[in-house]
Amino acid sequence: MSITVKLRFFASLREKLGEGEAMALPESSTVAAAREALMARGGAHAEALARGRAVRAALNQKMCAESAPLSDGDELAFFPPVTGG
Fold first, then answer.
1. Is residue 50 part of a domain?
2. Is residue 85 in some structural domain?
3. 39-77: burial string, b at 16+ Cβ within 10 Å, e else
4. 44-53 pLDDT, tens per residue?
5. Domain that residue 32 falls in
6. Whether this model's pTM surpasses 0.85
7. What are phi and psi of 54, to 5 degrees?
8. 84 in a domain, yes or no?
9. Where do transmembrane segments lie in this chain (predicted)?
10. What is the chain's percent helix, strand, coil content, to nearest 5?
11. Count of the separate structural domains present in the chain
12. Residue 27 has what pLDDT?
């Protein structure tokens, strides 16, 4: 079985990857699994979400760890860390 999550990208990630999309994943997937699946696409996704890059995640509008489990219908957002000035 699979689940569908709504992906959203913000700030510089939105510029590179677009606003977002729906993505099907295997049941019992985590935030890390979603990121890996996106990086596996190659190109802009692999570059923007690469492991060496600082990328934060929010699950249903709450900050989360990459170990957070995903459920059908969740909203998963990726964004760069906020910098102040």
1. yes
2. no
3. beeeeebeebbeeeeebebbbeeeebeeebebeeebebb
4. 999 999 999 9
5. 2-79
6. yes
7. -80, 110
8. no
9. none
10. 25, 35, 40
11. 1
12. 96
Q: Indicate which CATH number applies to the domain containing 15.
A: 3.10.20.30
Which tokens belong to 44? 């802009």
Cα dihedral value 51, 48, 80, 11, nearest 10: -170
- In this structure, are strands 2-9 and 75-79 parallel, antiparallel, or unpaired? parallel
**Residue 33: partners with Cβ closer than 8 Å, 6 or more residues away:** 25, 26, 70
Residue among 53, 58, 26, 22 nearest 39 (CA): 53
Amino acid symbol at 32: A
Are 50 and 18 contacting, i.e. CB atoms less than 8 angstroms apart? no
